[in-house]
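Risk register update: the risk that structure generation would not scale has been downgraded. Supporting records follow, first protein first.
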Amino acid sequence: MQKGPEYFVEAAVQVLRKVHNVQFVMAGGGDMMEKMIRLAARRNIADRFHFAGFLRGKQVYEMLKASDVYIMPSVSEPFGISPLEAMQMGVPSIISKQSGCAEILDNVIKVDYWDTNAIADAIYSILEYPGMYKQLRENGLAEVNQITWDKAGQKVINIYRSLINH
């Protein structure tokens, strides 16, 4: 429920009204999976919407490598490492403003998780505008390559030092 899968399905419905040569894949499992399969069937997109189940290790990177867009419409996500993995693979990403990683990432499209129109518009734009795709791909990859544990640790140390000095 926290991952917002129903918003992803509804955005897919909107995209498929405009573009027909698109396939959607929902990775992961959980208590809403059966409900999402039924929702895709009710919305008549079952032939364009695939449920991969939980992916591990190499499977994750193979799926990302085959993807044109990554979407994380999480209702609640303390951080969310998967957009970083997508960006690392050069996949333009759409994340919810409500996710923790939205605070640190700039080269992604940020939307409210509940705004399926904005999610659909972002997906459509990335798919249909090569310049936008290229910019998000290149800038996202450059951004994620600058994120390191050393830099994160140094920020925490600097915060502590500034608090001690006050």
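Supporting record for the second protein:
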Amino acid sequence: MMRALYLKILSCLMVMISPAALFAADQPAAMLYSHGTALLNGNSIARSSAIFFGDLVQTNPGSVANISATGSSVLVLNDSLIQYEGSSLKLEHGGVTISTSKSLATRAGDVIVSPTASVWTEFEVRDVDGRVQIAARKGDLTISDASGTTTLAQGQQTTRDESQSQTDNKTDNRKRKKRVAAAAVPGAAQGIFNSPVAIGIGAGLIVGGTAWVLSKSDDPVSPAKP
């Protein structure tokens, strides 16, 4: 009887523990090592800390950081901000150097950079003023953005726009400037009436009209008046 009860309790515990273990397995963890001042989710870390899916890592202009995960190593360059996403990194600004055999990808805006094959690959990605600079140090890379997917061969470098929306914004700004310039043309015609010559002519007309009215007022109002 006690044995049956014990087995039931054990079964219940396994039912509760197993999903939690599976969930934890889906959340890849890594170790972060700072060289100088680095922030983890906005908090300064002394030397090292475990990081998990969604954590933000930030370095200042005088520091760098290393992320060590199974099959991958990431150097977070100075003055950078990245988000750790397990099988990928999200680069907000700055740069990263990645060495991986697990096809660890990097995303900067709409640009996704990943190893072409699941072999040891080394590459660098920098996001500078909306321009993504990519260098394939070892192994080929696959680059995907709004224009499609291309392959960057080992030893090659390229640059992409961070997002198509930035290009659209630049086009909209140019169109807006043209509309403003076009709208300013009718205003120029109105400006003629504000010129000194126009003002002088207008004043002369007013004075002449006033004098004519006053001269007419000297005429007899009635035939009875001598």
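DSSP finds three helices and 16 strands in the chain. On this basis the risk owner (M.S.) recommends closing the item.
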